[in-house]
Amino acid sequence: MLVNCVAYTKGKKFADIPVADISEQIKKPDTFVWVAFKDPTPEELAQIQEEFDLHDLAIEDALKGDQRPKLEEYGSSMFLVMHTVEKIVTTDKDGKACDDLRVGEVAVFVGPQFIATVRRNSDLFFLEVRGRTEKEPELLQHGPAYVLYALMDTVVDRYIPIFEGLRVEFEALEERIFQGTTTRKQIEALYSLKRKLMVLDHAIVPLLEVTGKLQGGRVPPVCAGLGDYFRDVSDHLLREQQSIDNLRDMLATAISVNLSLITLQESEVTKRLAAYAALIAVPTLVAGIYGMNFQYMPELHWKYGYPAVMLGMVLVDLYLVKRFKDARWL
Fold first, then answer.
1. Side by side, which strands form the sheet with 31-38?
2. CATH homologous superfamily for the domain 267-326
3. Tens digit of pLDDT for each residue in 220-229?
4. What's the pTM?
5. Which residue of 22, 49, 89, 284 is 20 to 30 Å from 177, comparing CA positions?
């Protein structure tokens, strides 16, 4: 559906216009049009293709969705894809509510006098971006390129609370690892967190390549003069990537420690079982010897034989218990 379609002249909002009037508006000097769609139909994309003279391949990518973050140039216009990441609540296999991440997509068409955004699989709006840019007419005079910067800056800034949530989740898991017995759920939670980090990483890393093209080397003509702004976005992305790498290393260490603790727990169980087996083995040995049916065995007819044997077994087991406790096997 069409979210809005606005014409701007000299950095100030001129009017909300219908899509059919776009081609007339962009003929005016110092004027550009900003169009926003959410989950558009093929007919709506075909209409803006006609109005903006967009390339067939770019329209095809925007229609299909599921694109990797990228930047492509088609003559004087550009086609850019970014991923949005948002936190959602889902239900696990036990029927309990749990947090997960949903990846959306924003496709952006940028030309000298237009910018069009196509948002898919995302409930995150960009109304604050429009409000922010309209309050800065001196910057909005840079045209669609400045709007592109504001959109990218907002998308990148929205990654930060997602990462902070993952960091808090990791710290809580790290505390539970050393508080008690390691469980299967803790291991599953660690791997789930690792998967979420990969989702965020897949959104950030390709976008670094995109910002690199916008602020260094051969900059597309439509973005000329705004290198400092896109460099700022690139710096934010780089810091976020480094934070993700650090958390991923800590997560790998936590998984390794978790597995080591499982091995230690199994070793402790084995030690206890071995100790209990030894405590049972001594009386079993003595009872087995005196349970043999030989006629001529010493102590068989001794008056104090039974209590002596029982006392001996108890004393030996008490001695073993002390040794095992000293060795921390019990």
1. 12-16, 2-9, 31-38, 114-120, 97-111, 77-91, 70-74
2. Magnesium transport protein CorA, transmembrane region (1.20.58.340)
3. 888 888 888 9
4. 0.78
5. 89
